[in-house]
Design a protein that fits this description.
Elements: H1 7-23, E1 25-30, H2 35-40, E2 43-45, H3 47-56, E3 61-65, H4 68-77, E4 82-84, H5 93-96, H6 100-109, E5 113-118, H7 123-126, E6 131-133, H8 138-144, E7 150-154, H9 157-167, E8 172-173, H10 186-195, E9 200-203, H11 209-212, E10 217-218, H12 221-230, E11 235-239, H13 244-251, E12 256-259, H14 279-288, H15 297-313
Parallel strand pairs: 1-2, 1-3, 3-4, 5-6, 5-7, 7-8, 9-10, 9-11, 11-12
Helix pairs in contact: 1-14, 3-4, 4-15, 8-9, 12-13
The structure holds 1,3-dihydroxyacetonephosphate and iron/sulfur cluster.
Length: about 325
C-alpha cells in the first residue's frame, strides 16, 4: 500500500492543479525530475517528445519542469506562450561548456562543415547551427546528411563518438560532456554485471564509450523505458540519471531496476540542475508568473529554423 501523502504536499498538489486549470497551464516534465514533480506533470517525455508537445499544445502557459535549454526550446517553438521554469538556475553542463563566441570561432575555424548541435545547448548556439538533434534521433539524422558533407557535431563528445560509431561518419566533435553521465564508474558496472548475470545493461549515449561497451541497449530516456517494457528480461542495470527509475518501476512493478553508482562510490548520480525544481517552486512560478523564459526575437528566429528542420526530418 502507498504511504499517505503528507498534508502539506497534498495541499501543494491541490493548489497546483487548481492554478493549472484556472490559468490554462500545462506542466511538462523530463524523466530526471523528482518523483513528486513527475506525479503532477501533465506530460513526461524525453527532449524530443517534450519539444513536440511544447510545439503542439493549446495551453496558454507552459511550466517546464526540466532544464533551461528545454524551456528555451519550448519558447523558440511557441513564442506566443508564456514559458515558466520553476528555477532559472536549472542549467546543463553541456550548454555551459559551449559558449556562443567560442562556438562561432570553432565554426569559423572549420569552414565548409554542416553544423549539427545536440539540443542540450543555448539558443545562441542553436542559432549558429544547421540542424538540431536529440539523443533519440541523432544517428538517423546524421545518416541523412550526404556522405561527402563534412560535419561539426556539438557539444557532447560522448554522444558524438557514439553517433560516429553507429553511422560510420567521422565528424568534428566539440569537447563537451555531461557531468552526470561522465561520472558513472565502470568498476561498479562490472561488479553489478557479476551480481546480476541475467540483467540487461541499458545506457544513455551521453555515457563514455568505455561504459557504452558494456551496454545491451543504448538510447534516449524514452527509448530506455520502451526497451525495458518490450524486453523479455526482468532485470536491468540502468546507466543514466536515476529519475527515470520512477517511471520504470511504476510502469513495470514486477521488473527490477538497478542504479549504477558514480566513481566516488555512491548512488548519487542525480543531475544537480534537474533536481533544482521543487513543488514549492512550481507553485511559486504559477502564482507569480515568473521566472519566465525570454530571448531576443532575432536569436529565436535563427534558432527556430534548425529545430524545425529536426522536427520535419524525424517525423
Ligand atoms: P533525453 O533526450 O534522452 O531525454 O536526454 C536529455 C538529457 O539531458 C540527458 O542527460
Ligand atoms: Fe545536462 Fe547532464 Fe543534466 Fe542532462 S543530465 S541536463 S546533459 S547536466
Amino acid at each position: 500500500m502507498k504511504p499517505p501523502i503528507p498534508k502539506k504536499k497534498e495541499e501543494l498538489i491541490k493548489e497546483i492543479k487548481g492554478l493549472c486549470r484556472s490559468k490554462n497551464a500545462l506542466i511538462l516534465a523530463h524523466y530526471y525530475q523528482d518523483d513528486e514533480i513527475q506525479e503532477i506533470a501533465h506530460f513526461i517525455g524525453d527532449s524530443l517528445e517534450l519539444s513536440r508537445k511544447a510545439a503542439n499544445t493549446d495551453a496558454e502557459i507552459i511550466v517546464f519542469c526540466g532544464v533551461h535549454f528545454m524551456a528555451e526550446t519550448a519558447k523558440i517553438l511557441s513564442p506566443e506562450k508564456t514559458v515558466l521554469i520553476p528555477d532559472l538556475e536549472a542549467g546543463c553542463s553541456l550548454a555551459d561548456e559551449c559558449q556562443e563566441d567560442d562556438f562561432k570561432h570553432f565554426i569559423d575555424s572549420n569552414p565548409d562543415h554542416y553544423v549539427i548541435s545536440y539540443i542540450n545547448c543555448t539558443a545562441a548556439v542553436k542559432a549558429q547551427s544547421d540542424l538540431i538533434c536529440t539523443s533519440s534521433n541523432a544517428v538517423d539524422l546524421v545518416k541523412k546528411i550526404p556522405k561527402d558533407q563534412k560535419i561539426i557535431f556539438a557539444p557532447d563528445k560522448n554522444l558524438g563518438k557514439w553517433v560516429e560509431n553507429q553511422s560510420g561518419r567521422k565528424m568534428k566533435l566539440w569537447e563537451g560532456s555531461c557531468i552526470v553521465h561522465e561520472s558513472f564508474s565502470e568498476e561498479a558496472v562490472v561488479k553489478l554485471k557479476l551480481k546480476y548475470p541475467n540483467a540487461k545493461v541499458i545506457a544513455h549515449p551521453e555515457c563514455q564509450q568505455v561504459l557504452l561497451e558494456h551496454a545491451d541497449y543504448i538510447g534516449s530516456t524514452s527509448k530506455l523505458l520502451n526497451y525495458a517494457q518490450e524486453s523479455n528480461s526482468d532485470q536491468f542495470i540502468v546507466l543514466t540519471e536515476p529519475g527515470i527509475l520512477f517511471q520504470m518501476k511504476k510502469n513495470l512493478p514486477k521488473k527490477i531496476f538497478i542504479e549504477v553508482p558514480n566513481i566516488e562510490g555512491c548512488s548519487c548520480n542525480k543531475c544537480p540542475y534537474m533536481r533544482l525544481n521543487t513543488l514549492d517552486k512550481v507553485i511559486s512560478c504559477l502564482r507569480n508568473m515568473k521566472p519566465q523564459i525570454h530571448m531576443e526575437e532575432s536569436t529565436r528566429m535563427k534558432a527556430l529554423s534548425p529545430i524545425k528542420k529536426m522536427l520535419e526530418m524525424s517525423k
